[in-house]
Design brief:
- This protein has 166 residues and is α+β, with helices and mostly antiparallel strands.
- Helix content is 33%, strand content 32%.
- The protein has a 6-stranded mixed β-sheet with strand order 2-1-6-5-4-3.
- The longest helix has 20 residues.
């Protein structure tokens, strides 16, 4: 599924939702080649575990493998579209949250929630394709409390020890 919009400034949250639904339709069907066609030929894709995929074919092949194995039977759920902003006449940046859920899971839990940044470019046919994708698990870092205090002290001690040795 591809969408066409006259200009990036008119690309809306609803357009982003439609594009994400297209990705989800191919994901839910276990369709690696279809999923890959949502990306530009030279797309860059960073998986939640940091693995880098280069190009539509590599994205399609890896997802085809994963849909047959570790992601078998999963469905892709968009939790929230956090932002949609133009980055030029033919480029849009979308930030969303979501997760891949297994059949026994009913809702996105904090442990499975990821944040995705998608860079979309309009091709010569006016279709919006994903050209950049970064997926990261959301694991908030504590900034207060006893665990934070202990960790901060440990870091300071190690830094001071390293500085004394230098």
């Amino acid at each position: 599924m591809n969408i066409t919009a006259p200009t990036a400034t008119r690309f809306t949250t609803d357009d982003a939702r439609t594009l994400l639904a297209g990705l989800a339709a191919h994901w839910d069907a276990g369709d690696g080649p279809g999923y890959g066609r949502m990306f530009s030929p030279d797309a860059t894709y960073v998986q939640f575990n940091g693995v880098l995929l280069n190009g539509r074919d590599e994205i399609a092949d890896m997802h085809g493998l994963m849909f047959r194995t570790m992601l078998y039977g999963t469905r892709l759920v968009t939790h929230e579209i956090e932002s949609v902003r133009p980055a030029g006449e033919d480029c849009v940046v979308v930030v969303s949250t979501g997760a891949a859920l297994y059949p026994w899971q009913r809702e996105v839990t904090p442990k499975r929630l990821s944040r995705q940044t998608l860079v979309l470019e309009r091709d010569e046919d006016g279709r919006w394709l994903v050209t950049g994708f970064q997926n990261s698990r959301i694991k908030p870092f504590p900034t207060s409390g006893p665990v934070f205090e202990v960790a901060a002290k440990a870091v300071r001690m190690r830094v001071e020890r390293a500085r004394r040795r230098a």
